C-alpha cells in the first residue's frame, strides 16, 4: 500500500461545490388519493404537535425562521452554497418539522427519518418534486420540450415509463460496463500524462476536474452513444462550451437557484440571474442537440443501407418512436445536466475519505485483491464481489450527499408530525440532517463504511435516514449508471490499483 500511496498523490480539494436544484412551492396538479396517516409521529424524538381539541395543528402553529432572517441568510450570506448547514442549524433551532418563507415562497422542512418515510410512502403515481416554473418558462420561451426533471403529470409518466425500461435496473446498465471501462482506461492514461507533467513527477492535483471529465465522458457514452473527447489533451471546443454552460448553471452564480427564487417582476431590476439562466440552457440544449443529431443521422444512414440499427439508449429512443425528437433532446439535455457533477463530486468525496482514512483504503484494497485479483478489469457482475466498495459509496453519499434534500409538493392534505399540511405545499425532505443523527446511524459523524455491511443492524425504515438518490417513482433514474461508473472506477483507479507493476493510491 505504501507503494500505491507513493505513485499517485491525489491532492484533493476538500469541499467540492454543490450543484443542487432545490424545491420551490406550487399547486399540486394531480387528483388526490387517500389521506395519509400520521404514522411517524410519536416515535421517540419525533415531533407530535396535536392541537388542543386533539386534531392536527395548523401551519400557523409551526415554528420556523423569520422571513427576513431567511432572505438575509440566502441572498445576502450566500445561503444557496450552505443549504446543508442551514438545514442542520434550523433543525436544531426549530425541531424536526419547521416552516420557512423565502419571500413569496413557502416551504415545510421535514428532518425526521420516519416522517420522511411517511411522506414518501404516501405519494401517488406521479409525484411532483418542486415548482419547475423557471425551467418551464425557458422551455415555453424557446419552444422546447420538458424532460424528466422538469415534466409533470401525464407527460412525466409517459417519459419515465419509456426511459425506465433501459436504465433503471442494475441489469439494464450492466451492458454499459465495457464502454465505461474504456473511459476508465483513458482516464488512467490521462493520470499518467498529468503525472509526467508534474513538478515532482508523481502528484496529480485538481482531481475534481479530472473526475468531472470522467463523469461527463462516461455518462455521454451511454446517453449519446458517442465519445466527447473530455479526457484528450486537447478537449474539443463544443465540449468546452458545454462545460462552461454547466458551470454557469450550477457553480459560478448558482444561476438556477436565483433565477427560480427571484420573482418575474423583479427581473428588470435584477436581470442577471434570468439572463444567465437562459444563456446556460441555450448552451446545454445546443450541445445535446448536436450529439443527438449526429447519432440519429448515423442510425438513419444504417437503416437506409438496409442494415439493422443496433445500439443503446438513443438508438432505442429513436427506433421505438415513443418520444418525439424534441422530447429526446430535452431528456438527454436534462440527464446530462443531472449526471455529471453529481457523479464527479461523489467520486471526489469518496477519494477524499479514502485519503483521510488510510486504514479503510488498505481494507478496501485487500478486499479487491482477494476477491478479484490484481489488475483485474471488472465487469458489472464483479461489483457484488466487493461489498466494501459498495459500502464506501453508500457511506460517502451519507456523509456528503450531493443534494442535501429531496423536494416534494404534496398532492393531497397530509398530517405530518401532528400538523395539517395542505395539498400543494412544498416539502423539503432533509436527508442531510437525518444522515448525521446518531439515532439513525450510530456515531453518525464518523466515516465507517462497514456499517453498510451488516444489513441485520439496519431495519428497512432506517434507510430513509439516508436517501441520496431520493425515493420511489420519482427517484433518480440515473442511479444505476452513477453507481456503475463509481464502482468500476474505484476498483481500478482507487485503492485496488491498476497498471503494470504499480498501483494508484490516494494520500
Ligand atoms: C451520485 C450520483 C447521483 C446522485 C447522488 C443523484 C441524485 C438524485 C436525486 C436526489 C434526485 C431526486 C430524486 C427524488 O426526488 O426522489 C435525482 C433525480 C434525477 N437524476 Fe440523479 N443523481 C445522480 C446521478 C445521476 C445520473 C448519472 C443521471 C443521468 C444519467 C441522473 C439523472 C437524474 C434524473 C433525470 C432525475 C429526475 C428523475 C425524475 O424526476 O423522474 N442522476 N437524482
UniProtKB/TrEMBL annotation:
Subcellular compartments: Mitochondrion inner membrane
Cofactors (names): heme
Binding-site residues, heme: 476
Any one cellular-component term (Gene Ontology): mitochondrial inner membrane
Top-rank taxon, per record: Eukaryota
Alphabetical list of PANTHER family matching this protein: CYTOCHROME P450, CYTOCHROME P450 FAMILY 27 SUBFAMILY C MEMBER 1
Protein name: Cytochrome P450 27C1
Provenance organism: Eschrichtius robustus (California gray whale)
